[in-house]
Amino acid sequence: MSPEKNENAAEAILRACHVTKQFPASGGRTLKACNDINLTVYRGKTLGIVGESGCGKSTFVKMIVQMFQPTEGEILFDGKDITKLKGEELRQSRRKIQMVFQDPAAAFSPKMKIIDIVTEPLMNFKLIKRSEREAKAKELLRMVELPEDFVYRYPHNMSGGQRQRVGIARALALEPEIIVCDEATSALDVSVQDRIIELLVKLQKEKGISFVFICHDMALVQSFAHQLAVMYLGNIVEVLPGSEVASNAQHPYTQALLSAIFSTKMDFTKKIESIESEAPSPVDAPPGCPFQNRCDRCMDICRKEKPSLKTIGEGHEVACHLF
């Protein structure tokens, strides 16, 4: 499952250009959940987005699937700005970008059988007849390596890993070009996580699907993402090839995340490092670098001027005054 290098050689399928999302906060203030995000998703590749809870990664992917509208910026899918689409054109565009949610138990109606859950998107778009539902549902379950006789089960009669496979089957039903996974493995046991990731990698190879996978588990996401974006307080602080994360991460925040990873193969003579203090509120973000109050290499310029992303290698950008 090792990621490939040289993502720039691949075809860009989606680009987020200067995307910002603001929400009103108490006292007439503004919460900037995403701040000038520029990211590219390549065809048949996986973009991993990692960061602490509250960093803005879920808000960003909800703009990709058009659950939120950006305050500023544009999201180009196959060259067309999907944030400007309306009506039937918007509805049809949603077929191409599907989502797998974090909690498979909450993602489904408990009153719906699996056959109804996985074929509902196809019925909504009038792509199959009612008489074809059972055959199509069985085909989708085979695709995610579930037994065909699960079609008449209810979600509560299945394990968490099985329910998540149903979520993936539902996302696959419309044959999308991009699937967004919002913390899709965080509620699962570690052994189940591995099997779900192996399934996603297999489906990507077979169907050429692009994945946007958001996660707070650096060790998990770097194992299969072709490209990794690190978010902090609504900002992208580093973008680099997934295969280079362990060896070539440069931003102090990315390095801190790596040093906090626990592994049975780690050197237990070394102390597991933690990031001191808490992240500031996005409502009261400081001027300058957003990571300044937690960085042991903070300089005067970091408190005054916000660093922009700079290219420091092939497919590698970092927002830090050290570079």
Task: Summarize this structure as a short list of keywords or feature phrases.
alpha/beta, 29% helix, single chain, 4-stranded antiparallel sheet, 8-stranded mixed sheet, 323 residues, globular
Task: Explain what the structure shows.
The protein has 323 residues and is of the alpha/beta class. It contains 11 helices and 12 strands. It has helices spanning 57-64, 87-93, 104-107, 114-124, 133-143, 160-172, 190-207, 218-221, 245-248, 252-259, 300-304, and strands at residues 12-24, 30-42, 46-50, 72-77, 80-81, 97-100, 178-182, 210-215, 227-232, 235-241, 310-313, 316-318. It has an 8-stranded mixed beta sheet with strand order 6-7-8-3-9-10-12-11, sandwiched between helices. A 4-stranded antiparallel beta sheet has the order 2-1-4-5, covered by helices on one side. A hairpin with a 2-residue loop joins β4 (72-77) and β5 (80-81). α4 crosses α5 (133-143). The longest helix has 18 residues, at 190-207. It is globular, with a radius of gyration of 20 Å. The chain starts with 11 loop residues before the first strand and ends in a 5-residue tail after the last strand. 37% of the residues are buried. The model is unreliable at 1-8 (pLDDT under 50).
